[in-house]
Amino acid sequence: MVLLGNDEFLVELSKLFQKARNSGSITMTMKRYDGRTKPQPRDGTPAVKNPEYKCLIRAQSGSKKISTVIEQKEVEKFSTAYSNLLKTSVNGLKRLKKPKKKGMATQ
């Protein structure tokens, strides 16, 4: 998995969207990240007193995996850029046909 900067991640993500448009899909995951790369000690004491939480975002398409870590102060800037990317990239979706509901039985 490749850890990229925020701007580099958005550029690579747009390339993944272009590649997946014809065939394939993209899996995105987001989770809270406290910056630790080692597990917590078993005695229950926290390794860091007041960790500044970050957001870890991963994207996968086929065998290509990319990720980025977003600091708290950069969340608003990244989220606006990410939403603009989604608006431009997810425009060719096909509308799903909803299954017809069975009518209520008359009594």
Task: Note down, in words, how this protein is organized.
30% of the residues lie in helices and 23% in strands. The protein has a four-stranded mixed sheet, with helices on one face. Strand 3 and strand 4 form a beta hairpin. It is extended. The chain starts with a strand and ends in an 18-residue tail after the last helix. The protein is α+β, with helices and mostly antiparallel strands and 107 residues long. The mean pLDDT is 83.
Protein topology:
Layout: E1 2-4, H1 6-22, E2 27-33, E3 54-61, E4 64-70, H2 75-89
Parallel strand pairs: 1-4
Antiparallel strand pairs: 2-3, 3-4
Helix pairs in contact: 1-2
Highlighted features:
single chain, 107 residues, alpha+beta, 4-stranded mixed β-sheet, 4 strands, 30% helix
Brief summary:
The chain has 107 residues and is of the alpha+beta class. The chain has helices at residues 6-22, 75-89, and strands at residues 2-4, 27-33, 54-61, 64-70. The longest helix has 17 residues, at 6-22.
Structural class: alpha+beta
Oligomeric state of the chains present here:
single chain
- Count of helix runs: 2
N→C terminal distance = 60 Å
What string gives the helices and strands in order?
EHEEEH
The level of helicity is 25-40%
Q: What's the overall average pLDDT, rounded?
A: 83
Rg from C-alpha positions?
Answer: 20 Å
The main pleated sheet reads as: 4 strands, mixed
Give the uncertain stretches in residue-range form.
Answer: none
* Shape type: extended
